[in-house]
Design goal:
By secondary structure, the chain is of the alpha/beta class. The chain contains five helices and ten strands, in the order E-E-E-H-E-H-E-H-E-E-E-H-E-E-H. Helix 2 (74-91) links the parallel strand 4 and strand 5 (94-99).
Length: 240
């Protein structure tokens, strides 16, 4: 039986989960999610200790760790990844990375199957958003990248329709422009349940527990012509 500890500290949430994958069947054992905004370092270790205690699972019984890699808060990313790597080395188990945008897309596919395109948009602050879109056949419609808020509509206009959009960055979209082509899913951040489920399907070699930075700490959002483009690992097999 594959027992996994999952961590998410990339955004406002500080979340942990324990889950099993037994003969291909996923089961969430327990989870804890706290909307704290900041201060993940002060909360995460206690969350992990509490959930292990509540489930009577020893750290030595863990077989792998899944952790969100970003994009998101620089500080939050580092907290989760540093702890995941420490536990991985201490317990001699593998750690896999789960992209935040990929997790949002995964949830959109589950909630609204059969649409042409799925788009995740996360608030990147400073008048920018992180965006990624995949088509129903798994092909990439928009690589994960940072764009200016003013360029969102231009990017969405090129997506195959009908498309779903989800994530905290959808607050910046003029919904009236896409009323006939878009289905909005009101989710700000991916759930730890989805992150755990995705994590079980990944291998560490192709999906390392390494930070996904789409901009430097002091960089400003750029237009699509100059934006840094970085592919994100495929979490679900169907969405790249």
């Amino acid at each position: 039986m594959n027992t996994q500890l999952s961590l998410d500290t990339c955004n406002n949430l500080c979340a942990v989960a324990l889950s099993h994958l037994d003969q291909g069947a996923f089961r969430l054992i327990a989870s804890d999610t706290q909307d704290i905004g900041r201060g993940h370092a002060e909360v995460l270790v206690d969350q992990i200790q509490q959930i292990l205690s509540d489930t009577d699972i020893s750290p030595t019984e863990l077989s792998r760790i899944a952790v969100t890699t970003g994009p998101g808060s620089f500080t939050g990313q580092r907290v989760g990844l540093a702890l995941a790597r420490t536990l991985s080395a201490t317990l001699n188990i593998e750690a896999v990375g789960v992209g935040v945008l990929d997790a949002l897309i995964f949830e959109a596919q589950v909630q609204m199957p059969g649409l042409a395109t799925y788009c995740a948009i996360s608030d990147a602050k400073r008048d920018g958003v992180y965006i990624k879109a995949i088509e129903n056949d798994g092909s990439i419609a928009l690589e994960a990248n940072l764009i200016a808020v003013s360029d969102i509509a231009k990017q969405l206009a090129h997506l195959k329709t009908p498309f779903a959009m989800t994530g905290s960055g959808t607050a910046f979209v003029d919904k009236k422009m896409f009323v006939t082509t878009c289905r909005q899913i009101d989710v700000l951040f991916p759930s730890i349940h989805s992150i755990a489920q995705i994590g079980h399907g990944l291998n560490a070699a192709d999906n390392p527990a390494a930070p996904l930075y789409l901009r430097d700490a002091d960089a400003k959002p750029q237009s699509p012509k100059h934006v840094l483009r970085m592919p994100v690992s495929n979490p679900s097999g169907a969405a790249n």
